[in-house]
Amino acid sequence: MLQEVAGSTMFHPASLDEDLMPSDIFPSVRMRRLRQTPVLRDLVRENSVTMNDLILPIFVEEGIDAPVPIDSMPGVSRIPELNLGKEIKAIAADGVKAVMLFGVSHKKDAIGSDAWKSDGLLARAIKRAKDASPSTLVIADTCFCEYTDHGHCGVLRHGCVDNDATLVNLARQAVNSAQAGADIIAPSAMMDGQVAAIREGLDDAGFVDTPIMAYSSKFASAFYGPFRAAAGCGLTGDRKAYQVDPFNGREALRESIMDEAEGADFLMVKPGLPYLDILSKIRENSLLPLVVYQVSGEYAMIKFASQAGALDEKRVVRETLGAFKRAGADLILTYFARDIARQGF
Ligand code: PBG
Hints:
This protein is of the alpha/beta class and 345 residues long.
């Protein structure tokens, strides 16, 4: 009944009579009036996406001569460390302004120490990228799963990731990345207190102006499957003891509120499409720039369905990015960023 619709003062003028029937509103109110032409639709479009909003995740591997295609992510390859300069220039020339850098390490150990060495892969890759294209924003994924031999995001004790021991190492890794030239530090380990520990570490080392992009509401998601192959971080077990349960919304909100209180400069929701509700709730509860990560599994679903002829890739990508914007995201991490830069949106 219309009464229920009219009862919602949010969508109706206060003067609307409760006894009005649909026919009293229609045909004077016609929603289709503003959809008649492309120009009109452009004028009333509520959200837009530009290259200023997109960040491309890249995988940089040491000890390889040629790019290694990732089978589970068609179109994505691991970049050989030695090609990174050339590749980052090409990425920048295509129009991508920011990258999230992941190292694919051949020197893994129990604690991931390569990540905080000044001559380790992460530091070398950041430096190489910044030297080749100083204007490209380099964001350093700050975590240990790419650098530990067990694949967990920190130091293990009795088979479990030791939160506080890992904090010390995260701060070291962050300082190392900042020294190598990283523009933004992006902690993704989901340790409690990681933003505060990294902020303190950066400030003590003089990097008071280096922002922290917190992977704040990060879920223990099956959508990371292809990434683990891409980054070469196979894992026995799971990350349920530190990442958020996909069934929990309030808990994810608390994570972001805490990261903001610890000094995060950006908040992030990850994965994207299955968690639009979280994105929109955080948008309502924070004034910080909000980032969403369209993760490897989301990319793979679109790619494989498009390859099978079931979906129109370009239109589906556009729709997903529009949905992120509508839900409240400012920035979007997506493996499609380079395609969009090349082909338009
Ligand atoms: C590292 C990290 C992961 C992703 C980004 N950073 C993997 C994980 O948490 O298991 C996933 C990205 C993707 O799936 O595209 N902690």
